[in-house]
Amino acid sequence: MRKVGIYCRISQDRTGAGLGVARQEADCRALVERRGWTVADVYADNDVSAYSGKRRPQWERMLEDIRNGFIDAVVCWHIDRLTRTPLELEGVIALAERHGVELATVTGEIDLATPSGKMVARMLGAAARGEAEHKAERQARQRRQNAEMGKVSGGGARPYGYAEDRVTIVEDEADIIREVAKRMLLGESQSSICRDLEERDVRTPKGGYWKPTTLRRLMASARISGRREHTPRKSFETTRPLLGEIVADAVWPEIITVEQSDQLRALLSDPDRAALFAHPTGRTYLLSGILTCAKPKDDGTLCGWRMSGRPKSGTPRYVCHNTPGSPACGGTATVASRTDEHVRDMILTALASPEMLHQLTTKNDQDTGLAALIAEDEKDLAELAVMAAKKQITRAEWMAARTVVEKRLEENRAKQVRQTGAPMLLGFIGTFEDMTQRWKKSLNDSQRRAIVAATVHKINVYPADPRKKWDPDRFEFDWVA
């Protein structure tokens, strides 16, 4: 008597109830009973596509049981429940030959021991593979069309800031999003914001606490600015890219403005700026990596090594730290507290000057103009996609026009990344006394560091004069504006 393993699989279970798998198992058990066999085990992969390439744990367990001789027959509803890939099918055929396994399906028996049976299995497998590919193509076209119409995408947890219908704004969550947007544009780090949200017990839609990665995805999403973005699933293998293509205005209302969203997307997608804002949790020295050793070398050039914070005899200092194999000279150091105060006063003095205000205002006007150009190009891309979908232009025409617009869009976004610091500084700027008070009482370390980084490229530190206890002339500022 054959020891049967029943294999059931359904690609998509929207309810999570497993009803499709249960129906398959019932039909398979009826077939086993008619054949006079015995069910040894049931292997069910629910909500897993055989075409997607994802792991099927129960499928793998069944193959192992065949190899170990625990089962010598497999019953499934149809051969496409087993596999939709020719490679996997050939593996099943080879395994059946080695272990004398019989295969039966509710929709018709297939004898893998005969050449004709193998041929039928391969034909059915090829047909199933073709249908899976056509289905995937239809679904991809449908997803793209829905995106271009600004429609809601289904699946997964509801987006933060919106109700279960994904359209209605949840006001208390929207207030959090607006607050976070303002704090990020003022230079606060993602880690700092996440810690604050946890202290206030502000949670994600799934009930967890915010992490920098999840907060970054939320704030970089075009959704919160009332725009629909689309990322084809074939365009990535594992992790979805942070930014998708903005293809239309959405059917849901905005929480933050398009200008704010574009600034956040530029900020959060830039590797250099993301490194500054993401993980400063362990940074106890304000100017680490901004101060640069300016001790002259034998060839007349400067050391140029980024200085880091290290204590000596209990006193925090910035040093050019020379480790084995490092090009650092190790010859420059400065007391952290006096240096932080001096740099603060120099930066706040510069920010209080009319010249700096004029430069920042001009730069912010450029930001606004760039945002308008970016929005116009994104609209052009969406219109081109609609024209291509309606066959108003050929694919070649669509590709040619799209290439030009995307190149211009990429250039303007790059400019926007370089100018993102201007709105942040304009939100902070005031009189020297006012800024000093806010620096001491209102700002956290990540916000202070962001203001420094938005104001200076670097600060050269020359070796100390042993005759002077404190020498402000050692510091050479390389100003951004």
Task: Give a brief description.
By secondary structure, the chain is of the alpha/beta class.
Structure description:
With 481 residues, the chain is of the alpha/beta class. Among the domains are: 142 residues, Rossmann fold, CATH 3.40.50; 108 residues, Hect, E3 ligase catalytic domain fold. The chain has 16 helices and twelve strands. The strands form four sheets. A four-stranded parallel sheet has the order 2-1-3-4, with helices on both faces. The protein has a three-stranded mixed sheet with strand order 7-11-12. The protein has a three-stranded antiparallel sheet with strand order 8-9-10.
The CATH homologous superfamily of one domain corresponds to Resolvase, N-terminal catalytic domain
CATH architecture classification name of one domain: 3-Layer(aba) Sandwich
Poorly predicted residue ranges: 13-18, 275-283
- Can you tell me the CATH topology of one domain? Rossmann fold
Helix count, per DSSP? 16
SSE class? alpha/beta
The strand order across the widest sheet is: 2-1-3-4
N-to-C terminal Cα separation, in Å? 85 Å
The H/E string reads: EHEHEHHEHHHHEEHHEEEEHHHHHHEE
Q: What average pLDDT do the residues reach?
A: 82
How large is the radius of gyration? Answer: 31 Å
Give me the count of strands. 12
Q: Percentage of helical residues? A: 40-55%
CATH class of one domain: Alpha Beta
* Main sheet overview: 4 strands, parallel
Work out the strand percent.
5-15%
